[in-house]
C-alpha cells in the first residue's frame, strides 16, 4: 500500500477589475498588438485599492472548500505560495487561517516566486505522506500589481493579480503510476541567475518592497529549456513520457514559452490549459488558477494525468506530476 496525496477540491478567485492591453497604450509606448504577439496576454485582473493577497487567498480557499464539500474544521494546515505577502510577517497563511475561523492546525508561506505553487504542492505532499497532516489547503495568491514599475513597459504589461487553491487529502494507492494523486515532483534552483528576475528592494536592503526587474529575453531562453527538462525528469521518475500526459497545466508567463515547451514534449496545444490571455502572469497563482479553469471548463477530469511546470525568480523551477 502506498499513500497518495489526492486533490479533493479546487477553486479560484480573480479581482473584479479587468484591465485590457489598450489601457497601457494610454500611458506607455506600447500597443495591444505588441503585448498580444510577444506574450499572448490580452487582459489581466488588478486587485482593488486596499484588497490584499490574503483577501484573494481567502476567497480562493473558500471556493476550494466548497468544491470539496468540506469546512475549515476538516483542514489540518494551510500553505500559501506567494512573493507579495500583505506584510513582511506574519505569513499570509496565518491570515487565511484566522479568516477561515480556524484555531487549530498550522499555516506557513512558501516563497519560490513563479514556481511557488510547485514548491508548495511538493512540500504539502511530503507533509501528508510523512503523517504530519491528513488534509491541507494549498494556495497560490499574488498581487503583483503592487510591485510593478508602471514606467517600465517591458514588465508592467505582463503581470496580474489572482489566487487559486486546492484541498489535498490522503488516499490509499497501489504504488503504480495509475494511482490517483501526486505521482512525482522535481524541484530546482540556481542562484547564479538572480539578476534575470528580482525585486529591487526588501527588508534587509532598502527597507521598502521595491519593484520587479526582469531580463525578459535571456529568461525566455532559460525557461523553455529548463521547463522541458524538469517535466521530463518528473515523468521519468515514474516511467512515463510526454505523450502519456493528458494535460499540461503550465505556469502562464508567455504563450510562446508554453508552445515551445509543449512542442519539445511532443504534445499538441489542445492538450495544454492556457489562461495567459485572460490572467497575464500571476506568478505563484497561475498554476492553481489554470487548474481551476481547466476543471471548471470540463477539460480536466478524474483520472487524467496532469503535469504542471513553472520557472521564476531565483531562478527556481520545477514540476509536479499528478493523476487528477
Ligand atoms: O514568470 C517568470 C518567468 N517569466 C518569463 O519567463 C518571462 C520571459 N520573457 C518573456 O516572456 C519575453 O522575453 C518578453 C515578453 C518579456 C519579451 O519578449 P521578447 O520577444 O523576448 O522581446 P525583447 O525583450 O527581445 O524585446 C524586443 C523589443 C525591444 O526593443 P528593441 O531593443 O528591439 O528596440 C524592447 O524594448 O521590444 C521592446 N519592448 C516593447 N515594445 C512595445 C519591450 N516591451 C515592450 C512593450 N511594448 N511593452
TrEMBL record:
GO cellular component: cytoplasm
Residue span, Beta-ketoacyl-[acyl-carrier-protein] synthase III C-terminal domain: 235-324
Pathway: Lipid metabolism; fatty acid biosynthesis
Location of the region described as ACP-binding in the Swiss-Prot/TrEMBL record: 252-256
Residue intervals of the Beta-ketoacyl-[acyl-carrier-protein] synthase III N-terminal domain: 108-191
Reactions catalysed, as given in the entry: malonyl-[ACP] + acetyl-CoA + H(+) = 3-oxobutanoyl-[ACP] + CO2 + CoA
Purpose of the protein: Catalyzes the condensation reaction of fatty acid synthesis by the addition to an acyl acceptor of two carbons from malonyl-ACP. Catalyzes the first condensation reaction which initiates fatty acid synthesis and may therefore play a role in governing the total rate of fatty acid production. Possesses both acetoacetyl-ACP synthase and acetyl transacylase activities. Its substrate specificity determines the biosynthesis of branched-chain and/or straight-chain of fatty acids.
Family: Belongs to the thiolase-like superfamily. FabH family.
Domains: entry comment: The last Arg residue of the ACP-binding site is essential for the weak association between ACP/AcpP and FabH.
Protein name: Beta-ketoacyl-[acyl-carrier-protein] synthase III
Gene: fabH_1
Amino acid at each position: 500500500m502506498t499513500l497518495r496525496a489526492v486533490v479533493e477540491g479546487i477553486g479560484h478567485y480573480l479581482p473584479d477589475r479587468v484591465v485590457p492591453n489598450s489601457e497601457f497604450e494610454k500611458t506607455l509606448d506600447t500597443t495591444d498588438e505588441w503585448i498580444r504577439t510577444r506574450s499572448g496576454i490580452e487582459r489581466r485582473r488588478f486587485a482593488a485599492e486596499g484588497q490584499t493577497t490574503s483577501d484573494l487567498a481567502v476567497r480562493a480557499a473558500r471556493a476550494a472548500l466548497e468544491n470539496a464539500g468540506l469546512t475549515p474544521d476538516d483542514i489540518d494546515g494551510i500553505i500559501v505560495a506567494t512573493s507579495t505577502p500583505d506584510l513582511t510577517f506574519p505569513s499570509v497563511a496565518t491570515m487565511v487561517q484566522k479568516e477561515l475561523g480556524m484555531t487549530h492546525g498550522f499555516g506557513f508561506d512558501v516563497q519560490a516566486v513563479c514556481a511557488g505553487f510547485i514548491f508548495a504542492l511538493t512540500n504539502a505532499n511530503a507533509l501528508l505522506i510523512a503523517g504530519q497532516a491528513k488534509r491541507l489547503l494549498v494556495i497560490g495568491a499574488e498581487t503583483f500589481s503592487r510591485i510593478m514599475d508602471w514606467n517600465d513597459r517591458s514588465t508592467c504589461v505582463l503581470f496580474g493579480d489572482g489566487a487559486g487553491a486546492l484541498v489535498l487529502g490522503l488516499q490509499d494507492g497501489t504504488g503504480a503510476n495509475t494511482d490517483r494523486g501526486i505521482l512525482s515532483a522535481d524541484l530546482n534552483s540556481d542562484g547564479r541567475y538572480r539578476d534575470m528576475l528580482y525585486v529591487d528592494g526588501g527588508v534587509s536592503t532598502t527597507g521598502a518592497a521595491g519593484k520587479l526587474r526582469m531580463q525578459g529575453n535571456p529568461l525566455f531562453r532559460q525557461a523553455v529549456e529548463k521547463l522541458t527538462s524538469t517535466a521530463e525528469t518528473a515523468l521519468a521518475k515514474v516511467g512515463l513520457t510526454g505523450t502519456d500526459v493528458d494535460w499540461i497545466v503550465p505556469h502562464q508567463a508567455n504563450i510562446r514559452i508554453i508552445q515551445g515547451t509543449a512542442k519539445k514534449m511532443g504534445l499538441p496545444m489542445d492538450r495544454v490549459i492556457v489562461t495567459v490571455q485572460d490572467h497575464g502572469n500571476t506568478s505563484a497563482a497561475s498554476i492553481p488558477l489554470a487548474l481551476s479553469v481547466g476543471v471548471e471548463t470540463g477539460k480536466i477530469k478524474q483520472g487524467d494525468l496532469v503535469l504542471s511546470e513553472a520557472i521564476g525568480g531565483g531562478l527556481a523551477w520545477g514540476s509536479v506530476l499528478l493523476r487528477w
